[in-house]
Design brief:
heterodimer, A: alpha/beta, Anaerobic Ribonucleotide-triphosphate Reductase Large Chain, globular, B: alpha+beta, Alpha-Beta Plaits, four-stranded antiparallel beta sheet
């Protein structure tokens, strides 16, 4: 029999500490939609998404009500469109993005991921066309998320693609400049991209994924912070244990929701992603967890160690709590979607360089970073290269979601609204990386032994 | 299907009676009931069986919310599995 304190603890985690299921993401393979006629391929894509995703939102809402767990987002991830569109001779892939946007609107999901290409080793014709279509595609759509994988531990770093993405990010910012370059908030550049990640903007349905899959992302930074408040001042052994216990409970909820969604939709369960994903809401911040560990502000010396402990404890607990853990699984440190991060940047505690260091031990990378509008394509590319190097050498996923805030300078703020929050514009190095980026080619894959 | 009903709010006369009446009106069987008063906060936890309930889950939620509003307390109903998953391995 359940004890009253257990029941009240759960209710407190949900009502006060913002425990929620952040997303139920339906992965849909579009590989059977490829066609030598682009219009026919788009019809098939639309039909498949709207058919497979028909009940997703309703089932998500039913589960939220019956189990008493908020399910914040219902989303869809599809096969990288470059792989599907390559079968047709069309050069402009914007109509494919518009098809995804329409299908997402009909199904009722707020984001659809998979306007993507995987070019870590090199480009196909379809990959190049897709990437060149990204700025116009993001400007023409509201719900489509784009991602490009430019590096992997096996393949090394495709520096041609890195340079290309610097230019694409700038062009995307220009195309959506009147809306604070919001197109860039839906564009992720990856190293070691994950095939079953349920979180946007980087979700896509990888080529090794089944026909359909339910992937669930849990969250609960507030619950972790509350657990740490109870052991304030105690040793790291105690703190790590406290994080593990609460992360275990959080993940069990995710597993329950994933299984239930899978059963009701008749779609196989894929994975639970046990990431701590903050929101701009007060009390839902990863930065505040790090501060609870004893740092005056997120970004102070010790922040990287604190984040390493947090990420590791969350992973350990999640792996015990779910039958299949996948996705990114760790902690997200977006600059805009976390009230504590925003504050830390504003007071000068957290810099871009410190964030880069933090990405070597968390689950993603430089996320939702706003930089001055005059940041060059080469500097953007060089930032991507650094981040990719961290991912490639450390066998982890890293990502760059960076927003050149056109017309704004360091210290200004850009407003994206909703879950995307607001981002203080961070200064970047004034020294040039242009000759470095101009080299092109590939940085070879790193050696996997002799690790120091 | 079993669920946990929790009622949290300021103590007053008739909370248990009103919530029980709403449940019984819709053929929801109460299996267990516990209550405490912490400071001035009244907390009641009921384990209920929904097998024979005469309305849908969303309708039951609406009925309980209405009862809660009349009483000025917060009434929640959640399937038991949520708590089992979190606290019992």
């Amino acid at each position: 029999m359940l004890e009253p304190y257990e029941i009240l603890e759960t209710i407190r985690m949900i009502t006060v500490e913002h425990l929620d299921v952040r997303t139920i993401t339906l992965g849909i393979s579009l590989r059977d939609c490829a066609d030598s006629d682009g219009a026919r391929a788009r019809r098939r894509i639309y039909d498949k998404i709207t058919r497979a995703g028909e009940n997703l939102v309703a089932v998500g809402e039913q589960i939220a009500m019956e189990f008493g767990i908020p399910v914040i987002n219902k989303r869809i991830a599809v096969t990288p469109i470059a792989m599907i569109a390559a079968a047709c001779p069309d050069e402009d892939y914007v109509p494919f993005a518009e098809t995804l946007d329409r299908a997402a609107a009909v199904v009722g999901v707020n984001f659809i991921g998979g306007f993507s290409a995987l070019v870590q080793k090199g480009y196909t014709t379809g990959d190049r066309r897709l990437i060149d279509s990204i700025p116009a595609a993001l400007a023409a759509t509201e719900r489509v998320c784009a991602s490009v994988n430019v590096a992997s531990t096996r393949a090394g770093i495709n520096m041609d693609a890195v340079a290309h993405m610097g230019r694409i990010i700038r062009a995307t910012a220009e195309r959506t400049r009147e809306r604070d370059a919001i197109g860039c908030a839906r564009l992720v550049v990856f190293a070691n991209a994950i095939e079953d990640n349920p979180f946007m903007a980087g979700a896509f349905c990888g080529p090794g994924e089944p026909e359909l899959a339910i992937n669930v992302g849990v969250s609960g930074p507030g619950a972790v912070k509350a657990a740490l408040e109870k052991v304030r001042g105690e040793s790291f052994d105690v703190a790590a244990e406290a994080i593990k216990q609460v992360a275990f409970k959080i993940t069990r909820v995710g597993q329950l929701v994933a299984r239930e969604a899978s059963r009701r939709l008749g779609i196989p369960f894929g994975i639970v992603d046990v990431s701590l994903a903050p929101t701009p809401t007060v009390g839902d911040s990863v930065a505040h967890i790090l501060e609870e560990l004893g740092l005056e502000r997120c970004g102070a010396p010790g922040t990287t160690a604190a984040l390493a402990l947090l990420t590791d404890a969350v992973k350990k607990a999640g792996i015990m709590a779910s039958s299949h853990v996948g996705g990114l699984s760790g902690a997200f440190i977006p600059a805009s979607e976390d009230a504590g991060m925003i504050d830390a940047i504003r007071v000068g505690a957290l810099t871009l360089d410190k964030m880069e260091a933090m990405t070597s031990v968390c689950s993603v990378g430089l996320d939702m970073i706003a930089v001055p509008g005059d940041t060059s394509a080469e500097t953007l590319a060089a930032i991507i290269a650094d981040e990719a190097a961290i991912g490639v050498v450390n066998h982890k996923t890293t990502a760059v979601r960076i927003i050149p805030a056109i017309g704004r300078a360091a210290g200004d703020t850009v407003q994206f609204g909703g879950l995307l929050g607001e981002a203080p514009v961070m200064p970047v190095s004034r020294f040039s990386s242009a000759a470095f980026i101009a080299r092109g080619g590939r940085i070879p894959a790193p050696i996997l032994s002799m690790r120091n | 299907m079993r669920a946990i009903v929790t009622v949290i709010g300021h103590d007053r006369v008739g909370i248990i009676a009103a919530v029980s009446t709403t449940l019984s009106r819709h053929q929801v069987n109460i299996l267990d009931i516990r209550q405490t008063v912490m400071q001035e906060y009244f907390t009641m936890i009921m384990l209920v069986d929904l097998a024979a309930m005469s309305l849908s889950f969303p309708e039951l939620v609406a009925a309980l919310n209405a009862t809660g509003e009349q009483l000025g307390v917060d009434v929640r109903i959640q399937r038991e599995e949520t708590f089992q998953a979190m606290h019992h391995v």
